[in-house]
Amino acid sequence: MNHLSKLPRFLLLGILAVLAGLPVYWMATTALSDESQLYMNRQVPWPQIGNLGSLLSAIAAVPAGRWMVNSLIIATGTTVVSLLLGSLAGYALSRFRFQGRGFIGFLLFMTQVVPEALILVPLYAMFITLGLLNDLAGLALANAAFSLPVATFIIKGAVDTIPHEIEESALIDNCPRFGILTMIVLPLIAPSLAAAAVIAFFAGWNEYLFASTFLMDRGLWPASVGLASFIGQYETPLSVVMGTALLFSLPAITFFLIIQRRIVAGLTSGAVKG
Amino acid sequence: MSEQATTGLRRFGARALPHAFILPPIAYLCLFMFWPLARQMWMSLTDAKLATPNEGQFVGLANYARLVETPAFYASLKVTLVYATSAVVLGVTLGVISAFAINRPFRGRAVVRAVLLFGWAVPNVAAALIWLWMFNERSGVLNQILTGVGLSRLRWLTSIDWAMPSILMVTIWQVAPFVMLVVLAALQSVPDEVREAARVDGADPLNVFRAVTWPHILPAVQLAGLLVAVWSIRRFDIIYLLTGGGPLGSTSTLVVRIRQTAFEAHELGMASAYGAVGLVLALLIAAIHQLVDRRRARWMADR
Predict the structure, then answer these.
(1) Could you give the 3-state DSSP secondary structure of residue A194?
(2) What are the tens digits of pLDDT across the range B250-293?
(3) B159: Cβ–Cβ under 8 A, 6 or more apart, which residues?
(4) Residues 6+ apart with CB under 8 A from B127
(5) Which in A43, B27, B205, B264 has the greatest CB count within 10 A?
(6) CATH no. for A62-272
(7) What residue in A sits closest to B267 (Cα-Cα)?
(8) Structural domain count, chain B
């Protein structure tokens, strides 16, 4: 508020920042603690950087590397499917007037209120039939069903802002529509594509419910499932658990902070127009 | 602007082409979203079991009849509503306050803003792990702080009184930053001249806020509230990993029930019936959103 004088405002911000930052700070502090201190009454309340080397080698044994690779595969698959199909749908919804266009927009909007848990069982049954159970590709396909509509909204919104004239000269030269989309339109909306890609990627990277249900083979576990498997078992040192969780979080934190505005614009775009 | 060329382009696009573009994504969504949804609705009318999900016998409304006689169903419905409502009210309030607090420039604003966004950016499973440790009854930092100031330890996640507030704490840590960003974007588009003009006309700060700022950001606040509501109904990971729906079902929302009924009790038909109720709830929120949107459009037109 305009006349909120400085001191109370900074006091408020200070409190908010401590509350918001504490969990991440504590994750780092715990990761870099001596394991022996953790279950004493007073944990050393700052990160002990000296433990970094031993922490990293312990994480490598978890096997965090293999988990992250699996997460990467799922996330990349989710992104590719979402962007490929989202570009087609977004472009069509922006440029073409056709029957059922409004209905398709409505369908896309509806997908945003469907809880993942709701299609879990039928998807499970379907994946048995299709042989997609215990398969990273199946997970990418399941995740993309939820991030494709978001990508579509973002891409449609971006294409809306591009003047028709740019495409017309190409059309007159008899350039096929698909070529116009890939050669002219998509490069122009690269920043929006990047936002859609980050949203889809981290939807796949973070996803837990489908992954924990559809993957039985431990070797296929993504980091989300691997990390969750630490819960309730006490063989893995807590510092290693927190270190792995931090490593898993860092890419998400980095990308979300870098393009926060575009992500927010993207996430809200679908709900604005039903 | 060549109007003729534009209509030419439109006419060109009006032929078969649109379908070549729109069919692949729609077919995809039908296969992986709408077909499973339809199957789910059908399954709620069968006695399908986990081992043979495709071989359920049609049992009519038997699952629903059982559902309305299950006290756990009503408990779960209540938990879901309490959880979603509290998340919306508290998350939006805190998000709006944060947005106002950080709206004006100051040194180090970018850093503070980044820290405020942590809860939003950390993946759910990592968030669950860190909060589990912070909530730890014997050695967690929260109880360390409580005992440090002379209070007694809390059983954050294992007592019926505290499990829901604890879950909400984590949820608000995650959603308030998002609300803040949405509201902040709206705040920064409030025209300064209008605010200035109101002030020159002798309006006090509170009046400026009520007459200029608040109406301007209200749509953003509503939108953020809607999204938080939808996400609360969809949210599974955090609740499932922190409490598993316990203790005694006190944090067992509908989506947690779906997963438990399907994969722990192996009753797909019942799980699907729970799912149908979840879908109705989600659709209701979507309908409310449409209603609010329409009313706002009319309200804008009246002015």
Answers:
(1) helix
(2) 999 999 999 888 888 888 888 989 988 988 888 888 888 778 87
(3) B247
(4) A23, B119, B170, B173, B174, B238
(5) A43
(6) 1.10.3720.10
(7) A121
(8) 1
